[in-house]
Every structure is written in C-alpha cells, then in structure tokens.
Write a structure and sequence with these properties.
Alpha-Beta Plaits, Ubiquitin-like (UB roll), 347 residues, 18 strands, alpha+beta, 35% strand, elongated
Length: 347
C-alpha cells in the first residue's frame, strides 16, 4: 500500500467532485476506459468525491459531460504540481536547497561532547584527554578515530578501567568506568590464628603456608596459616623477584573440633517454680541440666555444628541439702582460625 501511494504522488493526482444523477455510469465508464479512481466516497445520491490521476482528468471530464455529470477539481497533490510551483518560485527552491546543503554539511561535524560514568574523575579532565586525541566540538566526524581517543584516555587517566566513544549524529558521548580501589584493610598481610582450643580435622590453604595438619591439637592464639613465606619456596622467590615483601594475607579454612562447657545448679525453690511436681530429684536434675545446656550453647558460634553432648550430674544434697549441680560439654565442628593482621614491627 505504501508503494502504491508513493506512485500516486510521483504521477500526481487530483481530488475530484462529481455532481449528477448518473454517477454509477461515470464510474463504470471510467473503468471501461482504463481511468483509475480511488478513495471514492458517496456524499449524497448526486455527489461523489474521489481521486484520479492528473493526466486522466480531461478524459474523465469529457466522459462526465457525455453523461450529464459535472466533474470539478477541488485539490491537487503530487510531484508534478510541486515541481510546477517550484518553477514559479526559483528563489524559494534555491533557498531550500541551500538550507538542506548547510544542514548536511553541519551534520559532518561533532558539535557536542558529553561524559557519562565519571564518579570521582572531573568531566573536564576526560574532555581534555579526548580533545588531545582530536575529539572536540567542531571536529569533523570522519577525523575522529575512536581507538586513538580511548588510548589517549587511558594514558592520561590511569584511574580508568574502561572507556568507549559513541557517535550519534553531531553528539559524541565518552563513556568511562573508573577503577575500584581495593580497601587497604582487605589487602593487609597477616596470619590465620586460632580463636579457640581444638583438634584440627581439615586444613585448606588458599594463601600463605599451613603450620598445622589434621590431628594436631591447637590452642587459642596459635598461628594456623602463616602469611610469612618460607625462604626458598616458589611463592617467596616470586615476590622477592617482583620487589615485594615476602609476606601475604594468609587465607584458608582450618576446620576442627572444639568444646564448650556450661554449668548449672538447681535448688528446691527453683524447681518448684518450674515443675508442678515440686522439688523432686528428677525435677532438680532436669532444671540443673537445662541451665548448664543453655550456658554452654550461649557461647556457640553461629556456624558451629553440634556433633556430641555430654552431661554430668553431681548430687551435692549430702553436702548442701536439696542442691543438684550439672555440667554439660558440647562438642562442635567449627572454623578454628580467624585472620589477624601483622603487627607494624613484624617483617
């Protein structure tokens, strides 16, 4: 349909108004003579609106006179009529051509340069680095080499992690992504030290050197994974050759068994409040064990996995009548180590 309408405009067409009683005969006669009519609209029984090619209008008007139908032109459209108007107004055509030519010429230059993505870098510094490579307002688009602009940005601004240049019409956008500086606290060298006494079951080292193995018993404060590299090792030689100190931030996992103990006691007046049966031996024992268990579990780290529990009940009613004491020992599997940064005086 779009191609057909374009063809109508190229040939030129007129909007016609036909008035008479034999409108159907006019339409049938136009079809017989090969005269194209379209967008026909019957306004009334004696009035017809439509469109026809400009070159066919005279034949259509003669056909209408033979049938007693008056055919008038109420509008013109298409390239032939525009061209006729242009011939009558050469100055307007020339001005339009010059205007289009100027617009086309201006579109061959970059007139606006924007910066997108700068967080801490001043946009002026990015624009200055781009201008040094030829990207500035007024620069011809054909002379802007994106690779050269990106290279200039990286050389002038070491804090850039990525840069790109986007050209759309007369607008250039310099998109940048800045480097994320690592937190010094996350790169400071140090050891993994024991936070609790325990029995080592598994050791996984991702950085540093292990000082313990499965089956070893460790005490709180003992170094489990050392950040100080041993002379002669490959890691030691690589850091020394690179001009770096032979210490790293030790990292890894030391999984082992640890024990948490709790103590509790129950007196007759306490058990009577908790158990309707009163201060019976069983009620006193349950109360003492539960208090000891709560005390032991209060010290468990969140990631600890309980693997055993041992309960010891001491009946001191012979020494202190009515008092029952209990001790609960909980065995867990947990991370025994925690990172500890090197002291300032350590190598």
């Amino acid at each position: 349909m779009l191609v057909r309408r374009l063809w109508w405009h190229v040939r030129g067409y007129v909007i016609i108004r036909a008035y008479g009683r034999r409108l159907e005969a006019l339409i049938n006669g136009a079809v017989r003579e090969g005269l194209a009519l379209w967008d026909l609209e019957r306004a009334s029984s004696a009035l017809l609106l439509g469109r026809a090619f400009a070159a066919d209008y005279r034949r259509l008007a003669r056909l209408g006179r033979r049938l007693g139908v008056r055919v008038d032109v109420v509008g013109k459209a298409g390239l032939p009529f525009w061209a006729a108007q242009a011939r009558r107004r050469p100055g307007l055509v020339l001005g339009g051509a010059v205007f289009v030519g100027v617009l086309y010429w201006l579109a061959q230059f970059v007139w606006f340069v924007h910066v997108d993505g700068a967080q801490t870098l001043p946009p002026a510094a990015v624009l200055e680095a781009a201008a040094a490579a030829g990207l500035r307002p007024g620069a011809p688009r054909a002379d802007v080499r994106r690779e050269d602009v990106v290279r200039s940005l990286h050389l002038a601004l070491p804090r850039l992690a990525w840069a790109a240049v986007e050209l759309r019409g007369t607008v250039a956008t310099v998109r940048v992504v800045e480097r994320t500086e690592a937190d010094p606290a996350l790169t400071r060298p140090g050891h993994v030290v024991a936070v609790r006494d325990g029995l080592v079951e598994r050791v996984v080292v991702t950085a540093g050197e292990p000082l313990v193995a499965p089956g070893d018993t460790v005490q709180a404060g003992m170094t489990l994974i050392s950040g100080a590299l041993t002379p002669g090792t490959r890691a030691y030689e690589e850091r020394v050759q690179a001009g770096l100190p032979p210490v790293v931030r030790a990292a890894g996992s030391v999984l082992g068994r640890a024990w948490y103990r709790g103590y509790g006691e129950a007196r007759p007046e306490d058990a009577a409040a908790d158990d309707p049966a009163g201060a019976s031996p069983a009620a006193l024992t349950r109360a003492a064990v539960e208090r000891a268990r709560r005390q032991a579990r209060a010290s468990l780290p969140p990631e600890a996995r309980v693997i055993d529990e041992e309960v010891v009940v001491v009946d001191d009613r012979g020494v202190e009548p009515g008092v029952v004491r209990a001790a609960v020992t909980i065995t867990v599997l947990q991370e025994l180590g925690r990172f500890s940064p090197l002291a300032a005086e350590e190598p």
